[in-house]
Design goal:
Pfam families: Orn_Arg_deC_N (PF02784), Orn_DAP_Arg_deC (PF00278)
Distance between the termini: 49 Å
CATH class of the largest domain: Alpha Beta
CATH architecture of the largest domain: Alpha-Beta Barrel
Bound molecules: ligand LLP
CATH superfamily of the largest domain: Alanine racemase
Number of strands: 18
InterPro entries: Ala_racemase/Decarboxylase_C (IPR009006), DAP_deCOOHase_LysA (IPR002986), De-COase2_C (IPR022643), De-COase2_CS (IPR022657), De-COase2_N (IPR022644), Orn/DAP/Arg_de-COase (IPR000183), PLP-binding_barrel (IPR029066)
EC number: 4.1.1.20
CATH topology of the largest domain: TIM Barrel
Protein name: Diaminopimelate decarboxylase
Structural class: alpha/beta
Shape: globular
Cofactor: pyridoxal 5'-phosphate
Order of helices and strands: EHHEHEHEHEHEHEHEHEHEHEEHEEEEEE
């Protein structure tokens, strides 16, 4: 067997199987998750600081497969939720209402009630939604998302703090916040922020934390401050990209938090909301090469990895390392630039542009690395393609199906004809 790039091999990612066996059993394309890696990332986040009242709220938007949620629960994580659907899944997985923080954004009264009725803390994102909360639940406890004026992220579409985003309450409105809290006799139990997704060094995150902590001083009796997520992972593993230095970030955080708590005078809980860091690296997306062709000097590798399956490259020009698996050991020494494309009817359907790789053949399998976050959750039925199955490689190396592939019948389930 031939494997180009040894990232998965060195991790023993596929356990007792190989990519060909998995595709044979579950079809192509296929999301494969490794339980050991997922658990390791949960633990790294839990051990980020030594500050005692610390909660890791897994941001399930990154990957809400029910089986992974159950594992996160076993690992002692809490969760955030962005929608009633996420709340529903989290409750199904066994999380208790007090382990869930609903970070709402432009929700309806019914959606807010959905959380309140289930005794889940709601964080609101604007003065008008605070007012709505007050009307629905006067005398209740609420949290508020602030926009600390700082943003950071791998692409402008995922920067969620600062002047150019829809998120969070502008701290200039704190007097109005206080008026609304008073008007409805609300207790502000927590404040939160999220400055954006994917930082590889902590300076903007730390700056955001300093801002939210200084905002927190405007409110007495907070029970928690949620510092947000955004912890990055190295997507360029084949080029040995360095990992985020969690140990020095953790130390810096510890000293800031301990210092701040002393002056606040109350032992509050700090939360973080990592999504990508926890699930990205546990996932590989497998696909099959169906056609190779040259079009006006460009070499195209045609696969079943369309943007219906993985949206990140078309949405954000994101890079994912690609591995090649072949059921023979055909030598392939020289590298050539190729454009790896999917099977969707749009010319933007490109998973990797001008990637320098050894020669690829029809019948090869490709592995798209670090696909466990914002992968399957963002997949769609565009072109009426079937969303892939999800498989888990257990700690003993065996594999189990944790979500079946769509069927053709699924495509007509919602029609009323
Ligand atoms: N908390 C809040 C309020 C968020 O909006 C997000 C992500 C997170 C936590 C988790 O962020 P993370 O730790 O995963 O960076 N689809 C994009 C990323 C969108 C992130 C949206 N919000 C991508 O594939 O890069």
């Amino acid at each position: 067997q031939y494997v180009y790039s040894n990232v998965t091999q060195s991790l023993n990612f596929f356990g007792n199987s190989d990519p060909f066996e998995l595709i044979e059993e579950y079809g192509s394309p296929l999301y494969v998750y490794n339980e050991r890696i997922f658990r390791e990332r949960c633990r790294e986040m839990k051990n980020l600081v030594s500050y005692p009242n610390f909660s890791v709220n897994y941001s399930v938007k990154a990957n809400s497969n029910l089986q992974l949620l159950k594992i996160a629960l076993e690992e002692g994580l809490n969760v955030d939720a962005m929608s009633p659907g996420e709340i529903f899944l989290e409750l199904q997985a066994g999380f208790k209402p007090e382990q869930i923080l609903f970070i709402s954004n432009n929700v309806s009264a019914d959606e807010m009630k959905f959380a309140i009725d289930r005794k889940i803390t709601v964080s609101v994102d604007s003065l008008s939604q605070l007012e709505l909360f007050g009307k629905i639940n006067p005398g209740g406890s609420v949290a508020i998302r602030f926009n600390p004026g700082v943003g950071a992220g791998h692409h402008k579409k995922v920067i969620t703090g600062g002047k150019e985003t829809k998120f969070g309450v502008d701290p200039n409105f704190i007097p109005q916040v206080k008026e609304i809290l008073k008007k409805y006799n609300l207790k502000l139990v927590g404040i939160n922020q999220h400055i954006g997704s994917l930082f590889m060094e902590g300076s903007a995150y730390i700056q955001g934390i300093k801002s939210i902590l200084s905002l927190a001083e405007n409110f007495e009796d907070l029970e928690f401050v949620d510092l947000g997520g955004g912890f990055g992972i190295p997507y360029h593993k084949q080029e040995n990209e360095a990992r985020l230095d969690l140990s020095s970030l953790g130390k810096e955080l510890d000293s800031i938090l301990n210092e701040w708590v002393k002056s606040y005078g109350k032992n509050i809980t700090f939360k973080i909301e990592p999504g990508r860091y926890i699930s990205a690296e546990c996932g590989v997306l497998l696909g099959t090469v169906h056609a190779i062709k040259i079009n006006y000097d460009n070499k195209y590798v045609g696969t079943d990895l369309g943007f219906n399956v993985l949206q990140r490259p078309i949405m954000y020009d994101s890079h994912h390392d690609i591995e090649i698996y072949r059921n023979s050991d055909l030598p392939s020494t020289k590298k050539e630039p190729v454009i790896i494309v999917g099977n969707i009817c749009e010319s933007g359907d490109i998973i990797a542009k001008n990637r320098l790789l050894p020669e690829i053949f029809e019948g090869d399998l490709l592995g798209v690395l670090d696909a466990g976050a914002y992968g399957h959750v963002m997949s769609s039925n565009y072109n009426n393609r079937l969303r892939p199955a999800e498989v888990l490689i257990k700690e003993n190396g065996d594999h189990i199906l944790i979500r079946r592939r769509d069927t053709l019948e699924d495509l007509i389930r919602c029609y009323n004809v």
